Amino acid sequence: RIVRPAVWDTEVRSPFDQPGVEASVGSFILAVNGIELDPKKDPYAAFDGLSGQTVSLMISATGKKDDAKNLVIKCLTQGEEINLRYLEWIENNRKMVDKLSNGKLGYVYMSNTGGRGQLELVRMFYGQLDKQGFIIDERFNGGGQLADRFLELMKRPVVYNLHWRHGRDHTWPVKTNTGPLGMLINGWAGSGGDGLPWAFQELQAGPIVGERTLGILVGPATGHRLIDGGGITVPGARLYDNDGHWFWEGEGVTPDFKVWDDPNLMVQGRDPQIEKVVAEVMKLVQANPPKMTPAPAPEDRTAKGLKAKK
Questions:
Q1: Which of 31, 79, 99, 126 fits a 20 to 30 Å CA distance from 57?
Q2: Residue 128: how many CB atoms within 10 A of its CB?
Q3: 3-41 pLDDT, tens per residue?
């Protein structure tokens, strides 16, 4: 198959997903740089040492040389391939949420609570503001910072509305979501990846689905080098809530709905955690659909009208 992220993800694309490259799913690679593949060997052996290099491939739609043609492509590096598959995973999740919710819910993935996570949040959130609610996926979140600005954006309130003489009414701030939220967590999310769902839970922002987070929120740690080249860190801060309770260090955030990412379902192209969080958030959408306050009737701003109003 050809690994394809979203059309707007241009930082890395598959060599077979480029303009002018005539290859499709199901095509056969017969030779690499003029050396035919040996069915007795691992096919990846033909690409040994070619990471990031430009190569010539003999491609056939039928597996026979009769219709074979040569294509010149540039192989991805290992890092590029990892990033490509990561971006495709995000896009497939977005499509799954869109399909399960009949287009009503948006999907935002945040890989961490640092710079990349903030870029992902702003890009994906602003691009789906027409949705009636959002799924925030922070599974595998590597942390970084405490997630105040994340929640400030996702929970931004509508202060007032603008009515235009020539144009469509809208809320202010314009970039805001008035629909329900849901969050996905798992045991690979920690540090800032603990802090984000904990804040989400404290704010009662919506249902949390998945598995317990790592529980490694103590920090920031001060590092000390040792003479043998190793090092130790000393925790410098710990979080506690407004009721005077410490964060559950070593335990993590417990989801409202515990759902295991069953590999028997995952291999079928399903994601039981996404299925559950979409179902729960859609209940909230149906019970209280987001709506904008309609503009009041026009006032009579003439002198006569203003006098009558008094």
A1: 79
A2: 17
A3: 888 888 888 888 888 887 888 888 888 888 988 888 888
